[in-house]
Every structure is written in structure tokens, then in C-alpha cells.
Design brief:
Elements lengths: L1 H29 L12 H19 L1 H19 L5 H12 L1 H12 L7 H24 L6 H32 L14
Helix pairs in contact: 1-2, 1-7, 2-3, 2-5, 2-7, 3-4, 4-6, 6-7
Length: 194
């Protein structure tokens, strides 16, 4: 039972730190509009929360359970988003951002371990690329005309900044979890030194 409570606490802490990171960056870009569900700035909360939850779930529970968590998160986000945007847009943006995060979380945790100080930059770039690809995909599905280049640039920048805030928040949360976790205490009750 104690281990379960610890895992829930770690999951909550990492999710909270990730979404706070995304919100902080969003407020610097869009100000109070980040809290307006009808404004594009709300994506910093929406994707920050779903992304933080998926990253946290991967960190705490591993790959197999993260796949289920990402599917459930995407479905919930789709149900909510489809109340104010078209079902096609809601599906593409909900599943299209969240499901690839499983791979991004894997890269973040496993493959980028050697580049610990620069993982946030890779995550930010991957988010930016995902937003451009999804913008292109939605445009091709919805109409025969592509939007102007400025739309792609703005979506890349939004994705980049959401990923940046999220990754920095997760990094801060992981540092906090590791500093207060049981493995941070040495044999004599003193924290280990790197």
C-alpha cells in the first residue's frame, strides 16, 4: 500500500510540475488568454496537462501502462474538445498529439539520458514538429487549400513553447522526486553526492 501511495504522489507531483511549466510559458506568450477555453492559448493548459500526465505515467509506471493512459487521456480530451471544435479536428489534435507522446516519453527517459541537460530542447523541437505535421494533416483532410505559411510558423512556435514548458516542468519535478525519494539517502542518512 505504501508503494502505491508513493507512486500516486510521484504521478501527481510530476503531472503538476509539467503542467505548471507549460502554463508559465503560455502566460508569457498569451497572458491571461491561456485560461480562456476559446482562445488558442488554452492549448498550453490542455496539452500541458495531457502531456505532463503521459510523461509522469511513463516515469512512474513504465511503457505498457502508459499506452493505456495515453489512449484514455486522448479519448477524454477528444470528448471535451469536440464540444467546441469539429469532431475531425478534435480527433486529430487529441490523438495526434497525445499518442506520439508515448514515443517522446520513451526518448525523454531512455534515449536522452546521456544528454540530460538538453532533453528539454529535443522535446520542445518534437512538439513543434508534431504541431506542424498535424496542421498539415488537418488542412489536407478538411480542404483542398493549405493555410498560409504564417499558420504553420505560429503552430510550430506554439508547439515548441508548449513542449519547452512541459519538458522543463517535468525535469524540475523529476529532480524534486529524486531529491526526496528513498534512493536519495545514503547509508548514514545523508544525501548521495553525484
Amino acid at each position: 500500500m505504501k508503494r502505491y501511495v508513493e507512486q500516486v504522489a510521484r504521478l501527481a507531483l510530476l503531472t503538476l510540475s509539467g503542467v505548471i511549466g507549460s502554463i508559465v510559458v503560455g502566460v508569457m506568450v498569451y497572458g491571461g488568454e491561456v485560461f480562456n477555453t476559446w482562445h488558442v492559448g488554452f492549448s498550453f493548459i490542455s496539452y500541458g496537462l495531457s502531456g505532463a500526465f503521459i510523461f509522469a505515467f511513463y516515469h512512474v509506471r513504465g511503457l505498457s501502462e502508459t499506452i493505456t493512459a495515453a489512449a484514455v487521456t486522448s479519448t477524454a480530451q477528444f470528448a471535451i474538445a469536440s464540444t467546441w471544435i469539429t469532431a475531425l479536428n478534435a480527433a486529430v489534435w487529441s490523438f495526434g498529439v497525445n499518442l506520439p507522446l508515448i514515443l517522446v516519453a520513451f526518448i525523454f527517459e531512455r534515449k536522452l539520458a546521456a544528454f540530460h541537460r538538453y532533453k528539454f530542447a529535443v522535446v520542445a523541437l518534437l512538439y513543434g514538429v508534431m504541431f506542424v505535421v498535424l496542421t498539415l494533416f488537418v488542412s489536407l483532410l478538411g480542404s483542398s487549400q493549405l493555410p498560409p505559411a504564417v499558420v504553420f510558423r505560429q503552430n510550430f512556435l506554439d508547439g515548441l513553447l508548449i513542449g519547452l514548458g512541459l519538458a522543463l516542468g517535468i525535469e524540475a519535478g523529476e529532480a524534486l522526486v529524486h531529491s526526496i525519494g528513498p534512493h536519495s539517502i545514503g547509508r548514514h542518512g545523508v544525501g548521495k553526492h553525484a
